[in-house]
Amino acid sequence: MAIKYNEKVVDHFLHPRNLGRIENPDAEAVVGSPACGDQVAIYLKIDPETEKIEDIKFESFGCASNIATASIITELAKGKTIDEAMNITWKKAVDELGGLPPIKYHCSVLAVDGLRSAIRHYLMKQGRIKPEDLNSDLVRGELYHVIYPPLGIDIVSAKRVKYIGVDDGVVTIDIAFDDEDPYLDEIKHEIEEKVSVLPGVKEIKVNNVGLYE
After folding, report:
1. Active-site residue (options: 14, 36, 170, 211)
2. CB atoms within 10 A of CB 55
3. 36 an active-site residue?
């Protein structure tokens, strides 16, 4: 069955704002993967005195929701300080678009990840933050960006993550879903996609332990 979008989503898909690339950006980031269906690149120009985002552009490779959410994220971030932009959430993006089908919430998460990754890139270039060593807290942070569509919240808040282990680059994650859940394969795929970008990850093992009290 075809996915239905509201007029605002369609408008941002057909007429995306801030589409393109900034030459010599102060920061940039690419998140997602074309092989997985969606990818977003974010480029920033930042005023060094005010730390406001003077210009922001994006390139998107994916579906209508992917393009629309990246478009609205650039509108929300432009003119904001980097601290303000870091506080933009995927839910804010969805609300600004007038809603998205729950199955497409992950697109807004990807767009926000792109924005935040670009800002972190800017801060790392300035030596203000350093890459962290791989640990369970870093992994859990990525899992907050994996949305369970039926509930419209992330799998950590939904209490579907039962265990996170990190041992010499091998990440083991136990999740709790019904074996017949139609979203299970998608959830596993998104977990692997999110966690794989963390530094030091050599292997990812995602185990579904089933639902239990």
Report:
1. 36
2. 16
3. yes
Partnered with residue 174 across adjacent β-strands are: 163, 207
Q: Rg of the chain's alpha carbons, rounded to an integer?
A: 17
Catalytic residue among 68, 107, 138, 171: 107
Q: Is the dihedral of CA 67, 96, 101, 28 positive or negative?
A: positive
Mean pLDDT of 148-154: 86
Would you mind telling me the total number of residues written for the chain in this entry?
213
Respond yes or no: is residue 63 known to be catalytic: no
> Rounded to an integer, what distance in angstroms lies between the CA atom of residue 148 and that of residue 161?
11
Q: Which of 30-39, 104-113, 169-178, 192-201 has the lowest mean pLDDT?
A: 30-39
Q: Rounded CA gap, 65 and 99, in Å?
A: 11
Would you state the pLDDT for residue 33? 64
Strand partners of residue 165: 172
Helix (H, G, I), strand (E, B) or coil at 120: helix
Residue 111 and residue 95: Cα distance in Å, rounded?
A: 14
DSSP-assigned beta bridge partners for residue 52 = 81
Please name every residue paired with 56 in a beta bridge, in sequence order, or none if there are none. 44
> Does the structure show a pLDDT above 60 at 44?
yes
Compute the average pLDDT of residues 9-17: 95
The neighbour count for residue 83, using CB atoms within 10 Å, is: 9
